[in-house]
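Interim report, section 4.2 (structural modelling).
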Amino acid sequence: MKQETGRYEPYNYFQLMEVSLRELLVEKGIVTEDAIAGAMAVMRARGPERGAAMVARAWTDPAYKARLLENGSRAAEELGFEVPGLRLIVVENTPETHNAIVCTLCSCYPRILLGLPPEWYKSKPYRSRMVREPRKVLAEFGLKVPAKVQIRVHDSNADMRYMVLPMRPAGTGGWDEARLAGLVTRDCLIGVAVPTLPKIPKKPKPRKS
Amino acid sequence: MPDARYRAGDKVRVRKAAPLGHVRTPYYIRGHSGVVERVCGAFPNPEELAQQRDGLPAQPLYRVRFRQRDVWPGYRGSRDDVIELEIFQHWIEP
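Predicted structure of the assembly:
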């Protein structure tokens, strides 16, 4: 798995199990190598666009936002996204509350809406620290949450999956959904960042001569 | 399926136990008390599923909210900070 290092690394226990199982399934004709490669290509190509589109709709349509918070999976289907088996809970950031998602037991994540989780989301430091020192972890991501704002950490430890509905940034009045969706990154949907407007470079002040 | 014994707003306590196997109740929350935030529905018991059984009857699953200060000794953060987890009914103390 670590060919990119250019060094030979023997398979670890779980890699060996994965390869053995995969080869057995192919050998028995239950799946084909092509089908596996195809499914992986689809998974790798998916990004957070669907989640971002749901957020942008919620920002522009209060009735949709209410439905999104009521039943996230149904709200995804409403936008034409098929989410078989997904039980999505959408949690709303407000001026009083900031939400963040973690899976302490493994790496549960709404992949069908956000794409593959980033490596750090699956790392032990994130999984163990996000629950017990969320403010410190968020600060390391560059997000300082004021002390008066409550932090609500969601451990995605069983059958539900989670997505954060961030607050719409000021200064986006009149923007259409596509433009708004462009502000919503994967990290905003996990809750380790908030949407911000691109910084407009300041015009250099004319120098007094 | 067993009826959901608890409703949103009920105070509940997570069992403190250490059974072997595939358990979806993290160690750090066992023995702690919180408040039911919502009933998520009922799902096959993951501890049974992991043993290739059907996991039925499905167990009611609750989203439970805990105060961070109750969970972590010396928690550094706001008094109001909370953590939420999904707890199966059979992990809640009667």
